[in-house]
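Is zinc ion placement plausible here? Inputs below.
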Amino acid sequence: MTTSQEYDLLIAGGTVIDPATGLNGVADVAISGGKIAAVGQRLPGHAKQTLDATGLLVTPGLIDLHAHVYPGCTPLSIDPDPLAARSGTTTMVDCGSVGANTFGGFRRFVVEPSRCRVLAFVNISVIGLAAMPECGYGRFVDSNAALRCIEEHRDLVVGVKVRGSRNAFGEDNTIQPVWMAVAAAAAGGVPVIMHLGDPPPTLEQGLKVLRPGDIVTHSFKGQPVTRLVDHRGKVKPQVLAAREKGVLFDIGHGSGSFSWTVSHQLAEQGFWPDTISTDVHTSSIKAPISIDMPNAMSKLLHLGMDLEAVVRAATDEPARTIGWHDRIGSLQPGMLADVAVFALEEGSFPLTDSYKQAEQASRCLVARHTICGGELLTEP
Ligand SMILES: [Zn+2]
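Reply from A.M.:
I modeled the complex. Tokens:
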């Protein structure tokens, strides 16, 4: 590299945490043409724009594996861009709001106009979450339609969503939609993400159906019937066996799926999530839960998860889970220039779980800048 090098944007002097490369230290991050151009100490050359990140954390842009971002078509969805800009989130993966019959509108009205990156797990129900119970007593479950949607929209579809819950099926005696989701995903070569809900399927039935690389979302929820721990607070053997097999466990916080009680029990046994996600929707985004990625990550820090592991679970790990780790989730030169800049503030921060219980955390991540594809989504 010569000193004649000119970058579009230089993020200077921050502590860079990039778990995919093992980098954890003070460095500059340079961006050109929408891609990461260089990472290193005191990079030579000039930049059209410089952000001073001294005293701040610089990470790959966050990837939210469980969001609901199809406003106007599904009652629970929110607009992705404002949330992305204020939370360091550069990729929102919609988790089942969209079905095969509504995917064209999602591409046209959400993906194309959004400044942040938007991807999707397509629902096994053709109507997505336009109405619930979305499976409509079986009428709207169609694995062939889901497979056609995967093949037609492979640039956006990263897997198949199914709510493993009688509330989704509209019946109380079938796990058929879970089988059909796995069938469509297997044929399309993508993972299934299964919402853990009121049985059927029971936790045990659901885990048995899932394959290595498939994901359980809402893993840290508190309802006795679906929690990952038994009545003594011990992680259930079926859960450990599923993890051993390669099933992944995601947070999917939402307004009903993150319990401080269960989270502490899981943390004490070192059972950390593979991925951290929000399940952000019109209800969970409101106070007192106020969920966003930095909020969810701060909760895992409070539980004792290591900072680098927390960043990994919000960047590299979700990128790998959806097969996008060659493009996003790391700051290696050549990757898409998705970057987040945070302050790790110290003090006393009330963090509220889905059951309206608050704990006082001593550290809290606060996003300062969000850069997606080299474009600064926040004002400098
Ligand atoms: Zn959800």
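Short version: The chain is about 25% helix and 30% strand.
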